[in-house]
Amino acid sequence: MIRNIHPLASISQGAKIGQNVRIGPFTVVHDNVQIGDGTSIDGYCELGYPTSLAEGAPLIIGKNSIIRSHSVFYEGSNFDEGLVTGHHVTVREKTIAGKGFQIGTFGDIQGHCHIGHYVKTQSSVTVGQKSSIGNFVWLFPGVLLTNDPNPPSDNLLGVTLSDYVVVAVKATILPGVLIGKGSFVAAHSLVNQDMPENSLISGVPAKRLCNASDMRIKGDIRIRAYPWRKRYVRGYPDYIIKQWANDLDSVSF
Amino acid sequence: MIRNIHPLASISQGAKIGQNVRIGPFTVVHDNVQIGDGTSIDGYCELGYPTSLAEGAPLIIGKNSIIRSHSVFYEGSNFDEGLVTGHHVTVREKTIAGKGFQIGTFGDIQGHCHIGHYVKTQSSVTVGQKSSIGNFVWLFPGVLLTNDPNPPSDNLLGVTLSDYVVVAVKATILPGVLIGKGSFVAAHSLVNQDMPENSLISGVPAKRLCNASDMRIKGDIRIRAYPWRKRYVRGYPDYIIKQWANDLDSVSF
Amino acid sequence: MIRNIHPLASISQGAKIGQNVRIGPFTVVHDNVQIGDGTSIDGYCELGYPTSLAEGAPLIIGKNSIIRSHSVFYEGSNFDEGLVTGHHVTVREKTIAGKGFQIGTFGDIQGHCHIGHYVKTQSSVTVGQKSSIGNFVWLFPGVLLTNDPNPPSDNLLGVTLSDYVVVAVKATILPGVLIGKGSFVAAHSLVNQDMPENSLISGVPAKRLCNASDMRIKGDIRIRAYPWRKRYVRGYPDYIIKQWANDLDSVSF
């Protein structure tokens, strides 16, 4: 079996490491961890951070993933293939994520979340406990998904973001709010109520201004900005781009 | 003496390490550091980061504390027992904190702060230099306590938060502002003036909307949300819970 | 040649390390890196993080710089002398910065940026790709410079901040916006249009309220707050302070 494990990495005997896995210097992999083939882990990472809250469930990192330096993953979460992280990321227990999940630098995924396929978060995004995120969702820098309707309390209510939702920089979604499919939340908004699909949502507190699909590209009023999948496909697999080209939005994975 | 110090940790000869202390791999403890009994330090931490601004004062970590990975503490700060941090925390010099201080992941405590007992900050909270925080205060994700009334300047004016104050997500408190006892600052607010006790504070700039004690639990109008200590006691010591049950809010420690 | 390289640092043979350089424990320096004389690198840093996007360009750190712990610099960026960072900083490829650049803790410089001389960012500042920043600019905690006018897209439009601009806490500048010389952006603002020089800018969305030079110091209405260089010079080199004293604002470096 071919692997590239740095001599200054510390890998527990119980960890299950796939083929063609690279592990960088000063990284610790605990016992209760499974790493898929072709995955690359940078230095200074700690994988499978022990917690009783995982109730014994392993940390599973799917194949062909990239975890960048100084990142911490607790045991008890499960990532499908193609996970990519920035640096200095923390991910807690009992989160389940689909294919191609991207977590930006300084990302904070607080656990007990359900995350669909090809969700992309940019830097400094906080995904609160119990969040539920559909497929093809984008979270831009500084976005915060909250969960406590009566802070402090223990009755956490996660946010629900439907497929294709885009949340622009520094927007905050309050506990229990559901954002409908294909909606766009504008920069700096504070969303305190459910919103139907295809909404342009903006303000503090946020209101539905119009259909998201009424928005045009800045600089060219002939091109609709949303649904974004009709104009932006970089980085998605060919089989998904083909389904989008055939006007399918409920993609088969 | 029983200790559990990882062979890849680097502990200076001058550091004073208590009994039953655990120190993880790749952690550096400098000379001018005292760590209390029963404390656990994860990997990749640097404790007692040297600075002339500490004027020779040591870093003191009280007993039964937990410092999570990738955290940096400067020399010259003093934490009472039961400190708990998330990951990737930085704490500068000359901060004094009481019992049970919790600092969330990506916390940034900028030094010269006075922090009471049982203060809890969640992730990505920035506590500016010269902040003064009472007992039982909560700071939710993304909260920022500022200090420079004329940026840039050297005449810093810290924020003062009284006992039992709750600051919700992403609120910002401007320099020199005093928030009275038991007040609640709503999500995303920008507070630019002093507020009396028991205030519900909201907006940009923030206004006093009503008494905090007029707010009800979301989903049950029969239950007052504040003072929160009448409905939420998880994680506090029994002797405090008993005093609260006897309607004492000025708790004896 | 005198150097102080920790035995647990890992320095590639190809790296060019100047004289009187200090490198801390557990730091990795890759091949394509040049570090100037008198520079100090803390522990847990990774310098010259490889990326094909650098197209072979080296990471250059100027002389007399200080890089604090847990920081990551990609190859392909170039920093003039006197760079100073906080902890947990990430800097990507193809950024060029002048003398005395300061990056606060949790700073995120996303690459392809042009940054002038003596720019200072405080903690948790995000400088998006393609940002252009003049000389003597201040960015306070939580400031975000964005770049995507149609998220998600690939047609990034960076922000331009002119000389002496001050952006207060948590303000966000939207893509492609130009802020004129000496302007002040108030805390928590969202700036969505170009602003002329010497503007006081505030609000969501932000408006020009008056001249920045009309603002007085809080607590003393006799003293103008801006231009700040007339009242605040700490930390700048003598030859610059002299030019300011002679009422030169276009300083010769």
Could you tell me which chain pair has the largest interface and how many residues each side has? A-C, 35 and 31 residues
| SS class of chain A | mainly beta
Extended strand count of chain A: 33
Per DSSP, what share of the residues of chain A sits in E-state strands of 2 or more residues? 25-35%
Distance between the termini of chain A: 30 Å
The number of helical segments of chain A is: 1
- How would you describe the oligomerization state of the chains in this entry? homotrimer
What number is the mean pLDDT of chain A?
97
Structural Rg of chain A:
19 Å
Classify the helix fraction of chain A into a percent range.
under 10%
Largest sheet of chain A: 10 strands, parallel
Features:
homotrimer, 253 residues, mainly beta, ten-stranded parallel beta sheet, nine-stranded parallel beta sheet, 1 helix
Brief account:
Chain A is mainly β and about 250 residues long.
Write structural notes for this entry:
The structure is a homotrimer. Chain A is mainly beta. In chain A, about 5% of the residues lie in helices and about 35% in strands. Chain A has one helix and 33 strands. A ten-stranded parallel sheet of chain A has the order 2-5-8-11-14-17-20-23-26-29, with no helix packed on it. The longest helix of chain A has 8 residues, at about 240-245. Chains in contact: A-B, A-C, B-C. The interface of A and C includes residues 105, 170 and 228 of A.
List the helices and strands and how they pair.
The structure is a homotrimer of 253-residue chains.
Chain A: E1 3-5, E2 10-11, E3 16-17, E4 21-23, E5 28-29, E6 33-35, E7 40-41, E8 46-49, E9 59-61, E10 66-67, E11 72-74, E12 78-79, E13 84-85, E14 90-91, E15 96-97, E16 102-103, E17 108-109, E18 114-115, E19 120-121, E20 126-127, E21 132-133, E22 138-139, E23 144-145, E24 160-161, E25 166-167, E26 172-173, E27 178-179, E28 184-185, E29 190-191, E30 199-203, E31 206-211, E32 216-217, E33 220-224, H1 238-245
Parallel strand pairs in A: 1-4, 2-5, 3-6, 4-7, 5-8, 6-9, 7-10, 8-11, 9-12, 11-14, 12-15, 13-16, 14-17, 15-18, 16-19, 17-20, 18-21, 19-22, 20-23, 21-24, 22-25, 23-26, 24-27, 25-28, 26-29, 28-30
Antiparallel strand pairs in A: 30-31, 32-33
